[in-house]
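User: I'm writing a tutorial on reading structure tokens. Could you give me a worked example: one chain, its sequence, then its tokens, then a sentence or two explaining what the tokens reveal?
Assistant: Sure. Here is the example chain.
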Amino acid sequence: MNTSTGSKLRGTVIKTPDAASGLLMVDGRQKSFVLEGVWKSPVAPAVNMTVDVELDEAGAVSGLAAVDPQQLAREKMEQLGAVAQEQGKQAAAMARQGIGKLAGRMGKLALGCTVVLWVAWFSFPVIGFSTAALGVPAVRWFTLWDYQGVYWSPGTVPPALQSDGFPLPSHGAVSLLGLLLIAAPLAAPFLRDWRARFLDAGPLAYLVVLFLKYQWDVHRAAENVNALARSDSLYGGILAEQLNAAMQGTSWEYGAYILVAASVVLALRVFRRV
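And here are its predicted structure tokens:
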């Protein structure tokens, strides 16, 4: 692209002078030039070289100078920076408009709670496990997303019941269902069916079911250990001690309370509307 620089124009050499005159592309037009009395740079002209062009009153080329490659690179970077800045402003404006419309439909409180859910789901520790009571000084914390990958992995038991390591996470359909439910409040305002309002209660329902499933598995494990202890007091007693130690090393972290609080606020919106 040819651009003006003060009283000069920016052009590109498309043919160097030989027996015939050279050719420039200047402002979308071809212009001929010669070297004598016109070329002002110590380097010889070359095809595709960018040059500063001076024109006389008749429009003929009166002066040419090669543009320093570093200067050209700086100018291109400035142009790219200006374009990127302008596009960034447009993108930010579009994002603000989109968020504004979404907040207008959902309400700022509901939108804020949904954002908190997404951040806490993947970033905040929800549950921690310590094996110090088993003689192994190790502590590990899980976000809800990580914990689901461990909990729903095929062939594993709840991490609180494990004494010798943690399985590799493997997220399944239940974990993906959780993602759909925390995204549901974003879709609810755009659905015309009156039952769509109940989607705001989806995150809380998922957390409640997940907690009850965890409690049920712990209870079932305790019953199995007690039954084994009645038939094999030695081995059953060891397992009972390990189970108690694992449960004592289990703690709910601040992420769990944040998830519950945000989910409760969304769920209360449902009942307030009803």
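What the tokens reveal: The first strand starts at residue 4 and ends at 5. Residues 69-106 form the longest helix (38 residues).
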